[in-house]
């Protein structure tokens, strides 16, 4: 039964245990693994590797598409096998190790890592471990629920280990569109002009002799933990849907808005859910991760086509989609993240990009990654790929956090992932600020009036007014720009009245 | 004589004085003007407008390609006619008005403004004023020494005023390649695959009836004020050339490096001059501004082809090039800035981008625009268009400024124009830091060891070490991150020993 998934018969004698396959990985190696937003990651071999580390210390440089499911980042971190990790993660244990300086984490635009491998600007993987639905007659690899960087990892690696996960239906074959840009400087235009164009092949084309081991698994992907809209995220969605309707009315957007991209997580998911109750029709997505909301929109007849590089679903939606994947075959494609996030395509298609901010400031700079400027949360992910090149770059966040102790709108962000030059629209539960065509002083007034929580409005206006007295194109009180963050670290709140008297001398 | 430059005979009765043409501009209008890095700007009509302002106050929203020559930004600022200005400037008087909040300045990626006009995200110009060499039989406009945003301004404006500058040789015709991307969402790939591809036409195609007035002028472009290499810029060039040679040796770059982009100014010019004495051959440029160094490299047989969107030269080089422009016709093309800086092309061609930083920090974030976080210098220009999408993104700066009072390498930049995610290589006169594939803590060590001036090395290492004790992926002492800038503002130096005792309590 299982062996039928290996349609290239000469490869059937490469089947081995995860423990055996893990032996290909030696201390100091660079390993490229499938897996993007906890979907489609290799599951058995990394676990076996972590086990081996208990006997003999092995340190690897681990590259993936994005985050891993099944606690793999936790397990690998605890085993001590991660020397370096890129380009993204969401795991609490790994995050701690990164912030302690124990794991070197390289936080990268998700479309760029493979380009840097292609140019040898990063070390190419010695071993690639790719989760697959099947191996074709030609020995090509059919991915599962994510493509991520799997195709280029397999192409660049010396050796490839395939994990065939029999829990995934073999009907996933045909869902993927594997296209790899040619080498520069003789690269030709990427031939993708519409979200539903298919320009590549349905499996990862590598010479079969590179496949060094095949492991069978049947562990499911982790389910998405995304929760439904709450009062604040529903308010954010409401502001955004009203704004988009107005943009259409003004002739600035086509009736179906153009292709949509939505970042991962509750807020972006809620925003997409907001479109369910809207009048918009014939919507399309050209995004990175496809979440529950994508399929809710498809099921409701609102969304005509979704292009992504991974699918991560809640338990409810998972069986609904994957048990009926044929019903979605003509509405869905999964591409390599280099293609789903490619600047060339994002600019060409005119994407509306909706991503989540950790905090933003008066002037529209966005922090997506660092708590108080120092502690890594997850990583920039694809937000920069989209925000920079999108038709419209939208960032959403709740106006306050931690029981009002934190304002997400601050005088100056403590880390910049998206500069004022790349941010068009800011939305919180309080309202929406359209920053297009505005100078910094004008942006500030709109952000204060529309986005900041009332608890912090006076405090932010006070900062801005005093900064304006001092002057400058972008008025700041440089010695006070981080006073909210400092106060948070010292006194647990950004409310400045809660500070010690000694600070007031500053 | 002059009239022969208007080859469409029906347009010859549109000739008028600059004063008459300026009457098309009414209070509150948006005006799109030719001019990029002080080359090819309309010269007579804006002056006449400034004169009119003495009688009746007129406020306009002025858009250009980039900076204007002939003191026009100064003259317009002093006349009080600038309400808004975008996307770039370099003028002292205008800069002061911007920093005083008197002129609203929108500092934008140079490739993006026209895209925002196309989508009506910015107000389209009521009037376009375009400097030209000639008007063709079809009524199309042949630009002069820059293309900038002229083509799209002329296409989008209600009325077009053409300034035919007879000082420019009519042999410039044929130099330009005017291509305008189609509307989204049905845009097709930009068909440019090599730096010397010509994909458009040689004049700006507009219906002749849009031309409302034609003014003859004979004022030259301002000369470039770029100076030759000094000890520090020569050192920067030396570090960079050595690095590039090594990249070729390692197989990470082709022998001719791939297309080069260099920002404007003395440092980038010096870097390009450094290539003159190198072994590199068959070089190409796909850049924004072509400066003296471009033509020195062409004349030396080092540079095969240069694509830009404007040419700005010193007095010496100006006559050498423009008196013999035929000799350069097959080595040169001028494109709209949307094309010279387009993300799609920059990524496809694999450009080596060299731009100047005002300051950069421990972790590779770059400030290109704001002095001490508040005061606008010039603007981001095209640096972001290139840095984000380039094969290799290099930033150069002298390690110190203002007689050692300022270190260009700081704990945290006071404004971010290019994030750590978009910066590969940093170079100062002290040395070069290759940040590719490094985590923040690793980047910091390289920056301290290689880039910072010895005067500040200990002080920066002290900051970094103390920050590491506190921890975080990107270690910072958030309350001290701007202490160097604060010290500079209070005591005129970034040397912290020169601070008042009261500060030491912080």
Automatic annotation (TrEMBL), chains A, B:
It comes from the Bacteria. Residues 320-463 form the Acetyl-CoA hydrolase/transferase C-terminal domain. GO terms for biological process: acetate metabolic process; acetyl-CoA metabolic process. SUPFAM superfamilies: NagB/RpiA/CoA transferase-like. Gene3D superfamilies: 4-hydroxybutyrate coenzyme like domains, Acetyl-CoA hydrolase/transferase C-terminal domain, Glutaconate Coenzyme A-transferase. The keyword Transferase applies. GO terms for molecular function: acetate CoA-transferase activity; acetyl-CoA hydrolase activity. CoA binds at residues 378, 382, 402. Keywords: Transferase. InterPro entries: AcetylCoA_hyd_C, AcetylCoA_hyd_C_sf, ActCoA_hydro, ActCoA_hydro_N, NagB/RpiA_transferase-like, Succinate_CoA_transferase. It holds the Pfam family AcetylCoA_hyd_C. Belongs to the acetyl-CoA hydrolase/transferase family. This is Succinate CoA transferase. It comes from Marinomonas fungiae. The lineage of its organism: Bacteria, Pseudomonadati, Pseudomonadota, Gammaproteobacteria, Oceanospirillales.
């Amino acid at each position: 039964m299982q062996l039928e998934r290996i349609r290239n018969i000469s490869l059937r004698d490469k089947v081995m245990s995860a423990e055996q396959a893990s032996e290909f990985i030696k201390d100091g190696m660079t390993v490229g693994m499938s897996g993007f937003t906890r979907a489609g990651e290799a599951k058995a071999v990394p676990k076996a590797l972590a086990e081996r580390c208990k006997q003999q210390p092995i340190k690897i440089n681990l590259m993936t598409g994005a985050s891993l499911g099944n606690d793999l980042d936790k397990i690998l971190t605890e085993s001590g096998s991660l020397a370096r990790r890129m380009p993204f993660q969401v795991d609490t244990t790994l995050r701690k190790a990164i912030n302690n300086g124990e794991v070197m984490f390289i936080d990268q635009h998700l479309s760029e890592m493979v380009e840097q491998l292609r140019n040898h600007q990063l070390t190419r993987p010695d071993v690639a471990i790719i989760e697959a639905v099947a191996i074709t007659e030609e020995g090509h690899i059919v991915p599962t629920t994510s493509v991520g960087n799997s195709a280029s990892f397999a192409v660049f690696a010396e050796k490839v280990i395939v994990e065939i996960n029999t829990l995934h239906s073999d009907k996933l074959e045909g869902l993927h569109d594997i296209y790899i840009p040619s080498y520069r400087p003789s690269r030709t235009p990427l031939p993708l002009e519409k979200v539903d164009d298919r320009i590549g092949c349905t499996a990862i084309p590598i010479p079969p002799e590179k496949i060094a081991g095949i492991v069978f698994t049947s562990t499911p992907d982790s389910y998405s933990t995304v929760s439904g809209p709450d009062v604040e995220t529903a308010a954010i969605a409401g502001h955004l849907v009203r704004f988009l309707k107005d943009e259409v009315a003004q002739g600035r957007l086509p009736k179906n808005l153009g292709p949509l991209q939505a970042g991962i997580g509750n807020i972006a998911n809620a925003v997409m859910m907001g479109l369910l109750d809207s009048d918009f029709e014939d919507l399309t997505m050209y995004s990175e991760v496809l979440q529950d909301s994508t399929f809710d929109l498809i099921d409701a007849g609102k969304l005509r086509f979704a292009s992504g590089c991974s699918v991560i679903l809640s338990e409810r939606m998972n069986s609904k989609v994957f048990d009926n994947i044929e019903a979605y075959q003509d509405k869905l494609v999964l591409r390599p993240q280099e293609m789903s996030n490619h600047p060339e395509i994002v600019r060409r298609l005119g994407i509306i990009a909706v991503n989540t901010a950790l905090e933003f400031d008066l002037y529209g700079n966005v922090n997506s990654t660092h708590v108080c400027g120092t502690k890594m949360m997850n990583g920039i992910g694809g937000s920069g790929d989209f925000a920079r090149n999108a038709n419209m770059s939208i960032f959403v966040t709740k106006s306050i956090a931690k029981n009002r102790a934190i304002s997400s709108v601050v005088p100056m962000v403590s880390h910049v992932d998206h500069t004022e030059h790349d941010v068009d629209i800011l939305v919180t539960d309080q309202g929406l600020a359209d920053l297009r065509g505005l100078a910094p002083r004008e942006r500030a007034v709109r952000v204060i009036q529309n986005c900041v929580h009332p608890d912090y409005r006076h405090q932010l206006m006070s900062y801005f007014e005093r900064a304006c007295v001092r002057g400058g194109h972008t008025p700041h009180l440089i010695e006070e720009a981080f006073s909210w963050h400092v106060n948070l670290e010292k006194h647990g709140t950004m409310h400045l009245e809660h500070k010690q008297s000694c600070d007031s001398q500053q």
